[in-house]
Amino acid sequence: MTTEQAEQSIAPRADFAEESSVEIVVDSFARTPDLRLKQLMTSLVEHVHAFVKDVEPTEEEWQRAVDFLTDVGHMCDDTRQEFVLLSDVLGVSMLVDAINHRKSAGATESTVLGPFHMVDSPRRELGANISLDHNGEPCVFAGQVRSSDGSPLPGALVDVWQANGDGYYDVQQPGVQPGLNLRGLFTADAHGRFWLRTVVPRYYPIPDDGPVGKLLAATDRHPNRPAHIHVIAEADGHTPLTTHLFVEGSPYLDSDAVFGVRQSLVRPVTTVDDPLRAEEYNVANPFRLIEFEIVLDPLTERHSHAN
Amino acid sequence: MTTEQAEQSIAPRADFAEESSVEIVVDSFARTPDLRLKQLMTSLVEHVHAFVKDVEPTEEEWQRAVDFLTDVGHMCDDTRQEFVLLSDVLGVSMLVDAINHRKSAGATESTVLGPFHMVDSPRRELGANISLDHNGEPCVFAGQVRSSDGSPLPGALVDVWQANGDGYYDVQQPGVQPGLNLRGLFTADAHGRFWLRTVVPRYYPIPDDGPVGKLLAATDRHPNRPAHIHVIAEADGHTPLTTHLFVEGSPYLDSDAVFGVRQSLVRPVTTVDDPLRAEEYNVANPFRLIEFEIVLDPLTERHSHAN
After folding, report:
1. I need a labelling partner for A222 at 20 to 30 A (CA). Which of A109, B181, B250, B275 fits?
2. Predicted confidence band at A230 (pLDDT cuts at 50, 70, 90)?
3. What is the extent of the structural domain holding B228?
């Protein structure tokens, strides 16, 4: 034990007071053996106390906050994560995503994983139709995975999942939608290209029958996310990418309830009149098409060590 | 709708980015009809985002935070409030108490209510013995309720509750302790004086078999509170006071897990050899005594309106 530690443990703790509250509570975490945990608790105390001092809650408001957090906790079960929803609607999930996935200028931007990647996507052949319930406007989803220097990435993995034409994922409608509907794990060809058949997804509300939904209602916010297709792309020697493609023209592109939209990820649904391409994709001509080029960052030293 | 509002709703939302995250999320709460709720959400977003930017959590750390909060929520039921415990060990409960009960210089300081005032104390006659299980060292608890100008407050109400000599409240040991053990609501006499028979309470741990207990263990903090007697004092024309008396010499006076100790509230257990006073209190001579003078602030205009 150092002299400083001995003095800390002998000196009586000062009375709790508004002006010294952070110092007193931070000091209580002084012996935390895990230095990262100590840093997290220190910062948490600083910011939570600053918040309380800023708003000066009444005791009734503090009790309502306790009740709200309790309700959020009680809403959580194996298929519902209300604290993730709370993090989402406060922009915290996107902030954590942004901090952890700072991209080079040319790379495809990331956005949140979301709560619906709860089952592994089944491996499917290029060109397969992932719409098993045929609910929605048929379209082809195609693109190429490249490195940031423009070179194609053969054999890249492209994991795709999305809602149907009614705005629901398979896991939200067991017994209505077939299992593994609108999910697929594809391996890009020798040119890094991928293509598959699907439907244009619909916008949808995040689950809003719990306390987070009540918070949105009380703050005059809608619960909707604009139409999107989730994508995870991975290739050897590159940083994996978790992102969405957003459908141009969808409602709520300007007010995504979870702040996930990036303008660089918005793509149109075009109509293509080209018999050869239609034959290539095994669809009737003309056909609807969403194209999504994906650019991955090469692994840096830092990322290599982290992975 | 004002021109400014129309522009807000027409202007496309900027892409989410680390540097503009607060502005974007705060703007989403712009239409909150309840202005206090809007202020709370705005400040919450500012401080939570500042915390995230300060510590830059990994996605795994963010997930662990979600899991921790979920565990805290699942620990809550009708008799256990784990979010209050979390608030307590982070000093937030004491901070809210301090903000809401700023006292004049001479008034008795307040401290947290705690979770054990869950049943109404039974009305008892002055001098009654509230120790129904006789577990602990017998003592007299006595004092006087005065206004800040020194004048006694006849008929003041003094609500007392405490743990027994093993450090447990009645509600923690149903079937072991008699119901309403160590609880009493007393009416002070014509001189503002109150007295009752009880036992010297023992220090005790806050419930530490849940996620908050795990947090304390991981940060090398003990879960104990020093020995104390809870008091709520009320008198006409005065601000009600919720406080504790802390027992001088108790372990953990310098490291209360919930930061409730104020040096001005520490009192000794003295031995009194005085046959007349022993007779007055209906105890054998000599006897043990804790004295606690209580000074209440007169209601101000502001308090009068609030009540």
Report:
1. A109
2. very high
3. 89-306
Instruction: Give the residue-averaged pLDDT of A51-61.
Output: 98
- Asked whether residue A231 is domain-assigned, the answer is yes
Provide the ipTM. Answer: 0.90
The pTM (predicted TM-score) of the whole model is 0.90
Q: Residue A114 falls within a domain, yes or no?
A: yes
Q: Based on the domain organization, do A158 and A226 belong to the same domain?
A: yes
| Pick from B33, B47, B259: CB nearest A25 | B259
CB atoms B50 and A49 under 8 Å = no
Is A22 contained in some domain?
yes
Contact B157, B186 (CB under 8 A): yes
Q: Is residue B69 part of a domain?
A: no
Residues B228 and B101 in one domain: yes
Band (A160; pLDDT cuts 50, 70, 90): very high
B259 at A interface, C-beta within 8 A: yes
Q: What is the dihedral of CA A12, A13, A16, A21, to 10 degrees?
A: 150
- Higher pLDDT: B130 or B7? It is B130
Is B264's Cβ below 8 Å from some Cβ in A?
yes
Q: Give the total number of structural domains in chain B.
A: 2
Residues B35 and B141 in one domain: no
Alpha-carbon span B169 to A187, nearest angstrom: 64
CB contact under 8 A, A18 and B44: no
* Bond into B286 cis (ω within 30): yes
Task: Say how many CB pairs under 8 Å bridge A and B.
Answer: 217
Average pLDDT over residues B73-88: 94
> Starting from the edge strand earliest in sequence, which strands make up the sheet with A228-234, in order?
A183-187, A157-162, A228-234, A241-247, A266-267
